[in-house]
Design a protein that fits this description.
Elements lengths: L27 H9 L7 E9 L2 E8 L4 E6 L5 E8 L13 H8 L11 H8 L3 E6 L4 E8 L3 H13 L5 H20 L2 H13 L13 H6 L2 H11 L5 E7 L3 H12 L22 E7 L5 E8 L5 H14 L5 H9 L3 E8 L6 E9 L5 H17 L4 H18 L3 H15 L4 H10 L3 H11 L5 E8 L16
């Protein structure tokens, strides 16, 4: 819950008031910042801090709704600066898919005060690294940089958040870039095509149905007006959170944020109201013929959202069955039966229910039917021979190791804080997730295997190699035909 905003200091010449309770002690600097604020938009409020292991996440909010999360870490003179926006492909509708991803490209172009290329050159000059990503539920941008250059990065990020240039030549150029990316990553790539078809077939009504990169027909039809509406709506301070981890202090950071973001106005965000995905009651199967050396199988079992208690148990089950060469099904299909050359699986970590995904590539001479039968046999065997205690221990240990390795750097911690705060509204959600993983029992794993790994709740994509000289199946350029 948001704390009360600190009141301004008295006007010059008036009798000085005693500091409020919120402004006492170490927080008197907030009162001084707010005394200099030019408008209510720039006023800083401290929100309750959150424990993050041995560290603390300090939370603040500007009057315009901008959230700021800070973890002070002074072990090295570096800072990771992240900007997370609560917008991804789930916020798009048919006919306008791919806008969130297009913006990831547009944001590296010119702004009102920065000619094209200046943003990257300025970051390179201070030895900073930068990148961005877009997915179903979020978009984020980051810089890892020397801490003494923080003021430059705050100025650069605020500039492109409020002064992005979206004239036709700029938009058209990035549309061409994204269209080529789609051709390379999806239309000319078998794995990309299969993944897209899997989600398109598995989801009927939820926007997880369409790909983050967008359908080609939508990409090519975007206009500068589409982009301006999207920018004004979703790249607003009340839809953003700044996450900073590293060698800086709260007064220093908030003074910079207030100076550069305090003039931004909040926006009216559209209400998220997606129809619930209908329960899947029968298996869905799609077949493709593609120029691939061997057959491929992709399977997606409907699985619960990240916040659901069963998501952690399914992740442990997935790791036990497919995580590495010693995992049960990997060993059975790749090492022993030699039906597959590669096998991978994952559980969606989305705000809404997603998929327990499985991808397999057959060995030469193995048909798609034989590969699928082998997978089904091993999945069925899990129900009769549940995961053992050693498998459970190994699975949890591998997931814990991956989690802890992700927290070794300031950038890794900033990413975890931004992701969980954006998706779940809990900046320390990664630690809650770790506790949930550690708490998974053999009974939990057996239960979720029986409940979720069933044919009536799955979608299957079967890929057969195209005979020499024959064309492969064409790829849809957008949506449902």
């Amino acid at each position: 819950m948001q704390a009360s905003t600190v009141k301004r200091s008295s006007a010059a010449g008036a009798k000085k008031k005693a500091p409020t309770e919120e402004a006492s002690g170490d927080d008197r600097w907030i009162e001084r910042l707010n005394a200099r604020a030019k408008s209510k938009r720039a006023r800083v409020t401290r929100e309750p801090s959150v424990s993050f292991g041995a560290e603390t996440i300090q939370r603040f909010r500007l009057g315009n709704g901008l959230s700021v999360l800070l973890v002070e870490s002074h072990h090295a003179k570096v800072v990771s600066f992240h900007t997370w926006f609560g917008v991804g492909s789930r916020h798009e509708h048919e006919g306008k898919t791919g806008l969130a991803h297009l913006f990831e490209h547009l944001m590296f172009n010119e702004t009102k005060n920065l000619p094209a290329g200046t943003f990257d050159r300025k970051l390179e000059s201070i030895g900073a690294s930068t990148n961005a990503a877009t997915w179903n539920d979020w978009t984020y941008y980051y810089e890892d940089l020397p801490s003494d250059a923080l003021s430059l990065v705050v100025a650069l990020e605020s500039e492109r958040m409020k002064n992005l240039v979206l004239r036709k030549s700029v938009v058209d150029n990035e549309i061409g870039v994204v269209a080529n990316e789609r051709r390379y990553r999806v239309e000319d790539d078998v794995d990309g095509t299969v993944n897209e078809l899997l989600y398109k077939t598995a989801f009927d009504t939820h926007p997880y149905h369409h790909p983050t990169i967008g359908w080609m027909s939508d990409i090519l039809a975007f206009t500068p007006e589409d982009c301006k509406r999207f920018y004004r709506t979703f790249y607003a301070p009340n839809n953003a959170r700044i996450v900073v981890v590293g060698d800086t202090k709260a007064p220093e950071l908030l003074a910079l944020v207030q100076k550069h973001y305090g003039d931004l106005a909040s926006a009216e965000l559209p209400r998220e109201a997606y129809p619930a995905e209908p329960e899947q009651r029968e298996e869905r199967v799609e077949r493709l013929v593609k120029p691939t050396p061997t057959a491929k199988v992709a399977i997606g079992y409907k699985c619960p959202a990240l916040a659901h208690p069963d998501n952690a148990a399914l992740s442990v089950l997935c790791e036990a069955l497919f995580g590495g060469r010693s995992a049960r099904i990997f060993r059975a299909l790749v090492t022993e039966a030699e039906l597959a050359t590669d096998l991978a699986a994952s559980v969606s970590q989305f705000r809404d229910p997603g998929l327990f995904e499985l991808y397999a590539t057959a060995r030469e001479g193995i048909s798609v039917e034989v590969l699928l039968a082998g997978i089904d046999h091993e999945i069925k065997s899990v129900l009769s021979k549940p995961v053992t205690a050693p498998e459970l221990e190994r699975s949890i240990a591998r997931q814990e190791l991956g989690f802890l390795q992700g927290l070794e750097t300031v950038g890794g911690r900033a990413e975890q804080i931004g992701f969980y705060d954006t998706v779940l509204g809990d900046p320390a959600g990664s630690l809650t997730r770790l506790t949930a993983l550690r708490s998974v029992t053999l009974a939990d794993v057996e239960r979720v295997a029986r409940e979720y790994l069933v044919k009536s709740r799955r979608t299957v994509v079967l890929v057969e190699p195209s005979p020499a000289g024959e064309p492969s199946d064409g790829e849809s350029d957008g949506g449902d035909e």
